[in-house]
Amino acid sequence: MTGTATAPAAAARPLSRPSTGQRNGRRVWSYWRFYLALSPFYILFAVFGLSPLLSTIVLAFQRWDGLSARRFTGLDNFRFLVEDPTFWLSLENTVVLFFMSTIPTLSIALVLAVMLHSAVRFTGVYRIAYFIPNVTSLVAMAIFFGAVFSTNFGLINAGLRSLGIPEQDWLGQPWGIKIAVSTMIVWQWVGYNTLIYLAGLQSIPREQYEAAKVDGAGAVRTFVSITLPQMRSIVLFTVIISTIGGLQTFTEPQVMVGNTGGPGQSGMTVVLYFYRAAFLNNDYGLAAAIALSIFMLVLLFTAINWRIFRVRGDAS
Fold first, then answer.
1. How far is CA 26 from CA 32, 35, 119, 169, 308, in A?
2. In terms of C-beta density within 10 A (0-12 exposed, 13-18 middle, 19 or more buried), how is residue 76 classed?
3. How far is it, in rounded angstroms, from Cα 274 to Cα 286?
4. CA–CA separation, 77 and 81 (whole Å)
5. SS3 state at 239
6. Separation of CA 27 from chain center
C-alpha cells in the first residue's frame, strides 16, 4: 500500500523551475562575448579615469610633496584656497577670459557658418582654411600671438602707429594681456565651431527657407524664426564644449606671460594656479583641491548654460 500511495504523489509533483535570479543570471552570462568585447574600454577607464579621480579626491584632504609620506589634513587645503587672494584673482581672470573669448567665438562662428552655407564656389577650400587653426600647435600659436602683440615689434602696434594712435604695452598691462589671450582663443576655435554650425545648417530642409521667402520674410526674420530654433541643440553643444575648454585655459597665458601670470598676475588662470601649486611648489594636496574646484566650476557653468537654453527652448 505504501508503494502504490507514493507513486501517484511523486508523479503529480510539479517540475521545479529556475528562480527569477537564476534566469537573470543565465541571461547575463549568455551575453559574455559582448561584455568581453566592451571590457577594454571599462578597464582603461578604470585605470586612467576613475582611479586618478578617486585618488585626487582623497589627495585633496591630505598634505603631500611627492616624496614624503602623506598626511591627512582635513579641510586645510580648501580653507587655504578660500583665504588665498591669488585663488580668487585666478578665478576672476578665468571667468573674464571665458566671456571675452567664448561670446565672440560662437558669434563669429555662427555668422561665418551662415555665409559659408550660402556660398556656392570654393566651399571646400573655406572649410579647410577655417579648420587649420584648430590643428596648429597651441604652443606655436601662443609664441606667434606673443610676437604679434609685442610692444616694440608687434604687428598690432605697427598698425596703430600707421594710424597715428599711441602704441600699447599689450603684454604689460592687465587688460592688454586679457585681450591678447582672448584673441588667440577666438582665432583658434572659430573655425572648429563654424564647421559644427555648418553641419547643423545643412540639416535644415531648404523647403522651410523657400516657404519663408514666399511669405515675404526677410533674411533677419528667417534667421530668427527658422535657423536659430532648429540650431538650439547644436548651439547648446558648442556652448558646453566652449565652457569646458574656456574654464581650463592654460597654455595661452603660460606661454605669453609666464608662470606668474604677467604683471599684476592678470593672466593667472585657475589651471595656471594649479600648475604652479603642483609642479613649481610641489604641493600636490593643494593642487588636488584646486582641481576639484575647477571641476565644480565647470559643472556650475555647464548647469547654468543648460538651464538657460532649456528654458528658452521650452518658451519657444
1. 10, 14, 58, 72, 46
2. middle
3. 8
4. 6
5. helix
6. 39
How many secondary structure helices (H) and strands (E) does the chain include?
Answer: 17, 2
C-alpha distances out from residue 22 to 13, 30, 33, 36, Å: 21, 12, 19, 21
As given in the structure block, the three cell numbers for residue 217 are 520674410
Whether residue 257 contacts residue 237, with contact meaning beta carbons closer than 8 Å, is answered with no
For the chain, domain boundaries: 17-59, 76-315
Q: Cell numbers of 72, please? A: 591627512
76-315, CATH topology level: MetI-like fold (1.10.3720)
0.70 exceeded by the pTM? yes
Least confident segment among 102-111, 203-212, 268-277: 203-212
> Model confidence over 159-170: pLDDT tens digits?
888 888 888 889
- What pLDDT does residue 315 have? 52
C-alpha cell at 44: 582603461
**CB proximity list for 95: less than 8 A, separation 6 or greater:** 247
How far apart (Å, rounded) are the C-alpha atoms in residues 249 and 253?
A: 8
- Which of residues 19 and 197 earns the better pLDDT score? 197
**Residues 92, 272: Cα–Cα separation, whole Å:** 13
- Determine the residue type at 43: I
Q: Which of 190, 41, 178, 177 is nearest to 107 (CA)?
A: 190
| Confidence category of residue 102, pLDDT binned at 50, 70, 90 | very high
Nearest one of 94, 66, 64 to 289, comparing CA atoms: 64
As given in the structure block, the three cell numbers for residue 218 are 526677410
pLDDT digits (tens, 9 = 90+) for 250-263: 999 998 888 888 88
Strand partners, 63: 71
Decide if pLDDT at 268 tops 90. Answer: yes
